[in-house]
Amino acid sequence: MFLTQLTFATHVHVGMPSGNTAIFVMRYLTPCLPVLLAVAANSPYWRGYETGYAGYRSCILAASEKYGLPDYFEDWADFVRFYRAAHRSGIWGQFKDIHWDLRPRPDYGTLELRVMDAASTVGNATALAAFVRCLMIYFIEHVSMDIDECLPSPLPHWLEHINRYRASHLGLDADYVCDKSGHTRPLRALISDLIDLIRPIAKRVGEEQGIERFESLIAHGAGYATQRQVYEETNSMVEVTRQLVVDLSQEVNDVIRPEAAGPASGVNDQPGSTFGVPKGS
């Protein structure tokens, strides 16, 4: 299984003040997962072949019984009951075996986002982390409050699966199913609304540069589009790989220097202590 599912991802941890807050944030962040999957999609090729997907990594990992969208839980106690039942039934041996797109990590006191492909450069990785951080801060600050109407609402599982599939298949060009009646809107429009929503938070917590880089990533094409452009120009997977190496090397040489470093992106200013690590029965 390891050899057939050899993939790479960008994981982001954000501290949660409590288990109940983690479950609240997870509930409202789950409908946003297609946005994050699409923007970070960076795996259009598999073993040298065009897959037709912007992010084929999710298709590879779908073979695992423990991978995919998380379920919805009422509160932390509800999650603990679920965890104990799953552990008792032998679904996994330890907590980190839960390979959902989004999962609580009570041992770290964080909520861990796992849906995004590995970024090609450090700059893109920090831009993705900045957006995730600001979005989670928004939800943390709106526990027990009304959520902005621009945010997508939780949907039946089958519709959320469709949104996730569309994002992995079409990337930023996907249409997002907004409600149970089947109304849709361009995913890019939803992303624009989310950026406007979290922009004041980005300014407050020092993530303005990260959000600007995030917007640039969308405007100039996500990783999957860049790889395809190189292939169309050269008809060579070797050149696609070479360009990935060049982009990262140039960034390391030109940007990642002490005198050029700006505020640290993705730094968690809301560290959570560990919250009630569930024990197996």
CATH class: Alpha Beta
Q: Detail the poorly predicted runs.
A: 260-271
- Domains counted in the coordinates: how many? 1
Largest sheet: 3 strands, antiparallel
Residues in β-strands, percent:
5-15%
What is the approximate shape?
A: globular
Features:
Creatine Kinase, Chain A, domain 2, 47% helix, globular, 281 residues, alpha+beta
Write a brief structural summary.
This protein is an alpha+beta fold and 281 residues long.
Q: Secondary structure elements and their pairing?
A:
Elements: E1 9-15, H1 19-29, H2 33-40, E2 45-46, E3 49-50, H3 57-61, E4 67-68, H4 76-88, E5 99-100, E6 102-105, E7 110-117, H5 122-141, H6 157-170, E8 175-177, E9 184-186, H7 187-205, H8 208-219, H9 223-234, H10 237-254
Helix pairs in contact: 1-5, 2-6, 5-7, 5-8, 7-8, 9-10
